[in-house]
Amino acid sequence: MSLPLTVDAREHGLVGDGTTDDRPALAELVDALGAACAADGRPRIIRVPAGRYLIRDEPVVWRSGVSLIGAGRGATCFVLANPGNRAQPVPLAWFTDSRHGASRDNHLADLTFAHFEIDGSGVRTEEYDPLAKGLGLQYVRRARFSDLYLHDTAATGFGCDFLQDTVVEGVLAERCGRQDPGEAMGGAGIGIGVGGWGAVERLTITACTAVGNTTNGIFLELQEEKWPPPRGIRVIACHTEDNRYGISDWGTDGLLVTSCTMIGNHEAGFDVSSHGTTAVAGRGGIVTGCVIDGNVRDGVAIGNTPGPYALRGNRISRNGRYGYWQHNLAGGDQEPTADIVLESNDIRDNALDGVRIDADLRDAAVLGNRIRNNGRRAAPAASGGGPGVRCTELSLVDEGADWPPDGHRGKRLTVGGQSALVTYNTATELALAPARPGVPTAWPGGTPAPGTPYELPDAPAPRSGLTIAADVTRPQVQSNRVEDDQEARTQTHAVWVTGTGHWTGGRVTGNDFTRNAASSTRFDTPPSGGRWRDNDG
C-alpha cells in the first residue's frame, strides 16, 4: 500500500497518554515510511500531535528520509524510560556505526526533527553509558534539527555525529549528563562527533542554548585520531551557562564561533584542549564577538594545539581565575603553539591575571586589547561566624563584614566541613557557584546552619595583566592598554615574566603600561633580545 508523504502519528497507533508504550507503533511507522522512501525516493513526514509519548526499554532505529515533527516544545513530549532493562540505553532515535553499520555509504539523509521535547529523566543504566542520549544518530546528510528541548538525559542530550550539510538550530539542552561522573565521555548538552565525512563537514549550530549540563554545553570532538580535523563548522549566536565547559573544540580545523555567550561555566567558558577521546585539540579557529563572562575559573583556556587560533573583539570579563589561559594537559600535544592572536578584546575584572601563559608559545600576536582592572582577588584573608552569619543555597551573608567588592572572587570558602567557590561578592554577601553543573546549591551536604564559622584564604600575588610563565618566542605585543583605573588598584603589573618564563625576541611597541598597582613591569627573568620601544609606563 502506498503511504502518503505526511502522516498523523495518532492515526498509526501512537496514543500519547504518557502511560502507553508508544515505541512499538513509532518503530513500525518509521520502518514503513523508510521503506516507502527507499522505494520511491520521496521523503516522508510524521506529524505528532500534542501529548506525552512513552518510549520504553528500547530506542527506535531510524530510517533515511523520515522526519519527525511535533506540535511544539512542551506540547509534544517523548518520555524516555528503561524500567524493564536497566542495561539498555534508550535514546528516542538512534542509528550508529557500532550497532547498525552506519557509514558514509550507509547513512541517513533528508530528515527533519523539529518542535518537540525529549524528557530523559526516566532512563537510568546500571553504569554510566554514553549512548544513553536524547538523540543518537551517526552519519547524517541534509538534516535539520530545529526547536527541540532535551533535558535530564543520562548522557548527552543531543548526541549526533558526522553531520553533513546539516543545521542544528534553536535546540535547548538542560541538565543532560545526569549519570556522568563529570569527566567521562559524553554528558554534554550538545555533543557532536566530527571527522567521519573527511576533511570538510558543512555544519551550522545556531541559536542553541545549553544550561546546567554535566560536562560541556557544546562540544565538537574528533572521533578517530588518524582522521584530519574537519573544516566547515560554525557555532553562531549560542548561549552556554552552568556547564563544566561552555563551548569546547576538541578536534576541528577552522571552527568559527561568533556572537555567543559563555557565562557561569565551571572550568572555562571557551576551551581548546586534548580532553576529547582522541586527545586531539582544535586548531585554526576564530572566536569573535562573544561575551565570555563570570565563569567560575577561566574565561578562555587553550592548549595542546599546534595553532593557530584567534580571538578578536570579545569581552572576557569577571572570570574566577584567568581571563585567557594558555596551558597544556598531560597526554596531548606538548609542542609550542604557534600563531595565537588576541586582538581588540576587552579583558577585564578577572580574578587573577588577564592573560596567563603557562605553555610555550611562538609567534603570538597581542594587538589592540584593553587588559584592565584584573587581579580582583585582592582581599585579605577573612573569617567569621556567629550572629549575623547565614547561608542560603548559593550564598553566604555576614552582616558585620566590609569586604571590597569582588575581592574574594574565585576563592574557596570553607564553612564547617564543606567548601564552595566564590563567584563574586558585595560588602556583606558572597555569591557561590553550584557544587556541580545543573544543581541548585553549593552545598552537597546541606546548607550550613546559621552562625557556622567560615574562612576565606588570603589573596595571591602578583596579579598582572599579562603573565609569562613559559617560553614565549618572537611575540608581537602592540597598541594594548594594560592598566588599572580603579580607585583601589588590584592589577599589580602590566607585564610579569616569572622565574619559569622566558621572553625571547619579538616586538613590544606602542603600549600603555601605566597605572598599575605596583609597577608597569616585573621581570623575574629578563627578556632576551627583541625590540621594546614607545611604551608608556
UniProtKB/TrEMBL annotation:
Tagged with keyword Membrane: no
Keyword Repeat set for record: yes
Domain of life: Bacteria
Pfam families per the UniProt record, alphabetical: Beta_helix (PF13229), Pect-lyase_RHGA_epim (PF12708)
Gene3D superfamilies reported for this sequence: Single-stranded right-handed beta-helix, Pectin lyase-like
Keyword set, alphabetical order: Repeat
Amino acid composition bias (Polar residues), ranges on this chain: 511-523
InterPro entries named among the record's database cross-references: Beta_helix, Carb-bd_sugar_hydrolysis-dom, PbH1, Pectin_lyas_fold, Pectin_lyase_fold/virulence, RHGA/B-epi-like_pectate_lyase
Carbohydrate-binding/sugar hydrolysis domain boundaries: 229-392
Annotated segments matching region Disordered: 500-537
Name by which UniProt lists this protein: Carbohydrate-binding/sugar hydrolysis domain-containing protein
